[in-house]
Amino acid sequence: MSDKSEPTPSPNTPTPEGEGGVCPICHGAGYVRLNVPPSDPRFGRAVPCLCKRREIAERRLARLRRASNLEHLRQMTFDSFRVDGPEDPEISFILRDALQTAREFAEHPKGWL
Protein backbone atom coordinates (compact mmCIF):
# COMPACT_ATOMS: atom_id res chain seq x y z
CA MET A 1 0.00 0.00 0.00
CA SER A 2 1.41 3.37 -1.00
CA ASP A 3 1.67 6.10 1.65
CA LYS A 4 0.32 9.29 0.15
CA SER A 5 0.22 11.26 3.38
CA GLU A 6 2.84 13.74 2.18
CA PRO A 7 2.67 15.75 -1.03
CA THR A 8 6.07 14.56 -2.22
CA PRO A 9 7.11 14.64 -5.84
CA SER A 10 7.49 11.48 -7.86
CA PRO A 11 9.17 11.15 -11.26
CA ASN A 12 5.78 11.84 -12.87
CA THR A 13 4.88 14.80 -10.65
CA PRO A 14 5.35 18.13 -12.40
CA THR A 15 7.65 20.64 -10.77
CA PRO A 16 5.99 23.48 -8.83
CA GLU A 17 6.79 25.95 -11.64
CA GLY A 18 4.21 25.14 -14.26
CA GLU A 19 3.18 27.08 -17.33
CA GLY A 20 2.50 30.73 -16.65
CA GLY A 21 4.14 30.53 -13.22
CA VAL A 22 1.17 28.69 -11.69
CA CYS A 23 1.95 25.56 -9.72
CA PRO A 24 0.47 22.49 -11.42
CA ILE A 25 0.09 20.73 -8.06
CA CYS A 26 -2.01 23.29 -6.13
CA HIS A 27 -2.99 25.48 -9.13
CA GLY A 28 -1.75 28.58 -7.34
CA ALA A 29 -3.61 28.00 -4.06
CA GLY A 30 -0.39 27.28 -2.17
CA TYR A 31 -2.00 24.48 -0.16
CA VAL A 32 -3.17 20.92 -0.81
CA ARG A 33 -5.14 18.27 1.06
CA LEU A 34 -3.40 15.05 1.99
CA ASN A 35 -4.69 11.80 0.57
CA VAL A 36 -5.30 10.11 3.92
CA PRO A 37 -8.23 8.05 5.21
CA PRO A 38 -11.04 9.83 7.13
CA SER A 39 -9.79 8.25 10.37
CA ASP A 40 -6.48 10.14 10.07
CA PRO A 41 -6.41 13.35 12.17
CA ARG A 42 -4.93 15.17 9.16
CA PHE A 43 -7.92 14.32 6.97
CA GLY A 44 -9.33 17.42 5.30
CA ARG A 45 -6.61 19.72 6.60
CA ALA A 46 -4.78 21.97 4.22
CA VAL A 47 -0.99 21.65 4.20
CA PRO A 48 1.53 23.81 2.35
CA CYS A 49 2.21 22.70 -1.20
CA LEU A 50 5.78 22.01 -2.27
CA CYS A 51 5.79 25.37 -4.05
CA LYS A 52 4.92 27.15 -0.79
CA ARG A 53 7.35 25.39 1.58
CA ARG A 54 10.39 27.39 0.46
CA GLU A 55 8.53 30.68 0.88
CA ILE A 56 7.35 29.66 4.36
CA ALA A 57 10.89 28.64 5.37
CA GLU A 58 12.32 31.94 4.09
CA ARG A 59 9.71 33.98 6.00
CA ARG A 60 10.41 31.99 9.17
CA LEU A 61 14.15 32.56 8.82
CA ALA A 62 13.58 36.31 8.31
CA ARG A 63 11.42 36.45 11.48
CA LEU A 64 14.07 34.60 13.46
CA ARG A 65 16.78 36.96 12.21
CA ARG A 66 14.73 40.00 13.24
CA ALA A 67 13.94 38.49 16.65
CA SER A 68 17.57 37.56 17.31
CA ASN A 69 18.71 41.17 16.89
CA LEU A 70 21.99 39.81 15.51
CA GLU A 71 21.71 41.11 11.95
CA HIS A 72 24.61 43.52 12.54
CA LEU A 73 26.85 40.49 13.21
CA ARG A 74 25.91 38.68 10.00
CA GLN A 75 29.15 39.61 8.22
CA MET A 76 31.23 38.17 11.06
CA THR A 77 32.23 34.68 9.98
CA PHE A 78 35.13 32.32 10.53
CA ASP A 79 36.49 33.43 7.16
CA SER A 80 36.34 37.12 8.07
CA PHE A 81 37.92 36.65 11.52
CA ARG A 82 41.35 38.28 11.59
CA VAL A 83 44.08 36.49 13.52
CA ASP A 84 46.82 38.95 12.67
CA GLY A 85 46.41 41.20 15.68
CA PRO A 86 48.97 43.61 17.08
CA GLU A 87 52.68 43.03 16.52
CA ASP A 88 52.70 40.60 19.45
CA PRO A 89 53.10 37.06 18.00
CA GLU A 90 51.68 35.56 21.19
CA ILE A 91 48.35 37.32 20.61
CA SER A 92 48.25 36.09 17.00
CA PHE A 93 48.93 32.55 18.24
CA ILE A 94 46.11 32.81 20.80
CA LEU A 95 43.72 34.17 18.16
CA ARG A 96 44.60 31.36 15.72
CA ASP A 97 44.07 28.79 18.47
CA ALA A 98 40.71 30.34 19.42
CA LEU A 99 39.61 30.34 15.77
CA GLN A 100 40.56 26.68 15.33
CA THR A 101 38.77 25.70 18.54
CA ALA A 102 35.63 27.59 17.47
CA ARG A 103 35.67 25.97 14.01
CA GLU A 104 36.03 22.49 15.50
CA PHE A 105 33.18 23.12 17.91
CA ALA A 106 30.95 24.46 15.13
CA GLU A 107 31.58 21.29 13.11
CA HIS A 108 31.10 18.94 16.09
CA PRO A 109 29.13 20.71 18.87
CA LYS A 110 29.63 18.30 21.74
CA GLY A 111 29.83 19.27 25.37
CA TRP A 112 27.54 22.29 25.14
CA LEU A 113 24.80 22.22 27.76
Commentary on this structure:
With 113 residues, the protein is mostly helical. It folds into two domains: 19-71, no CATH class; 75-107, no CATH class. 34% of the residues lie in helices and 5% in strands. It is built from two helices and two strands, in the order ββαα. It has helices spanning 50-68, 89-107; strands at 31-33, 46-48. A two-stranded antiparallel sheet has the order 1-2. The longest helix has 19 residues, at 50-68. The chain is elongated and about 70 Å long.
Please report the number of helical segments. Answer: 2
What general outline do the C-alpha atoms trace? elongated
- Average pLDDT, all residues: 82
Which residue ranges are poorly predicted, with pLDDT under 50 across at least 5 consecutive positions?
A: 7-14
